[in-house]
Design brief:
The protein is an all-beta fold and 238 residues long. The chain contains 1 helix and 15 strands; from the N terminus they run E-E-E-E-E-E-E-E-H-E-E-E-E-E-E-E. The strands form 5 sheets. A 4-stranded mixed β-sheet has the order 7-13-12-9, with no helix packed on it. The chain has a 3-stranded antiparallel β-sheet with strand order 1-4-3, with no helix packed on it.
Length: 238
C-alpha cells in the first residue's frame, strides 16, 4: 500500500464514459485534492500515457511515521476544462489495514486438577480461527507468572501449581505487521475444579440382575458445581 509506484485509484481525464468515476461527455476533467483527514497523506500524479490522474500515498510517509489511522478519507474536486467550468466533489475512503480476524473473542475451559497434568495447552490460532493478510504475533497483555505463549505460533501454556485452584483469565494480543500495525485481543479463561471419585462398594463385572445396582461411586467436587452438572461416560460393552 505504501509503494509510491502503485496508485490507490486512477481517474480518467479524457474520453470519459459512464464507467469512469467522473464523466463529462464534452470536456476533459482536472482533479485537485481539497480535503484530507491526515494532512498531506495523499498526492496526485498525472499519467499522460493513459490520460489519468492517480491518487498515491505521499512519498514523505513510511513505516516509521505513518499515521495510526487504518482508514483515511480524501476529498477531490473534479472540474471540467471549459470557459464556464462546472465542478463536483468525489470522496474516497482508503483502508490501509484491517485488524486480525477471529471467529470468537473468548473461550472458557474447565480443568479438573485431580486428573490434569502439570500444564494446560491452548492453540490460539486454531481455537479462535485467527486469519490476517499479514504475519501475526502473539503476546500476553498482562504477564502472569504461570502463563506463557510462543510469539509466532500462538501456543499458550498454563502451568498448574499444585494446590492452587484459583481461576485464570488471560488476555492475548494478536498483532499484525501491516501499516499501520493493528491488534485484536482475545481472552482465555481457565476454571479449575477438583473432582475425585472412588468406589464405596465393589463394582461387579458380568452382573446379570438388570435393574439392580452393580456398585457405588463416592465423588467429591469443589466450588459451586453440583454433582447434577456432571455426566458419566463408560465404554460400550464394558
Amino acid at each position: 500500500m505504501l509503494d509510491r509506484k502503485k496508485p490507490i485509484v486512477c481517474l480518467d481525464m479524457y474520453y470519459t464514459n459512464a464507467s469512469s468515476y467522473c464523466h463529462d461527455k464534452d470536456d476533459s476533467i482536472e482533479f485537485q485534492i481539497v480535503q484530507e483527514e491526515v494532512e498531506n497523506l495523499f498526492c496526485l500524479n498525472l499519467d499522460y500515457r493513459l490520460w489519468q490522474t492517480c491518487v498515491h500515498v505521499n512519498a514523505t510517509f513510511n513505516r516509521l511515521n505513518f499515521p495510526d489511522k487504518p482508514v483515511s478519507q480524501v476529498t477531490l474536486i473534479a472540474k471540467e476544462n471549459d470557459m464556464h467550468p462546472r465542478n463536483d466533489t468525489i470522496v474516497f475512503s482508503v483502508t490501509f489495514n484491517t485488524a486480525p480476524k477471529v471467529e470468537m473473542t473468548s473461550k472458557t475451559y474447565v480443568v479438573n486438577v485431580a486428573t490434569q497434568g502439570p500444564q494446560v495447552h491452548v492453540n490460539i490460532p486454531k481455537v479462535f480461527g485467527v486469519s490476517d493478510n499479514d504475519n501475526v504475533t502473539y503476546d500476553i497483555r498482562v504477564p502472569q507468572p504461570q502463563v506463557g505463549i510462543t510469539m509466532y505460533t500462538g501456543q499458550l501454556v498454563v502451568n498448574f501449581i499444585d494446590g492452587n485452584e484459583k481461576d485464570i483469565s488471560v488476555d492475548i494480543e494478536i498483532k499484525d505487521t501491516g501499516i499501520p500495525k493493528l491488534t485484536t485481543v482475545v481472552t482465555v479463561k481457565i476454571e479449575f475444579l477438583f473432582l475425585s471419585c472412588d468406589m464405596r462398594e465393589h463394582i461387579y463385572v458380568n452382573y446379570q440382575h438388570i435393574g439392580n445396582p452393580v456398585g457405588k461411586l463416592n465423588c467429591r467436587i469443589s466450588k459451586e458445581y453440583d454433582m447434577s452438572d456432571l455426566f458419566y461416560v463408560t465404554d460400550e460393552g464394558n
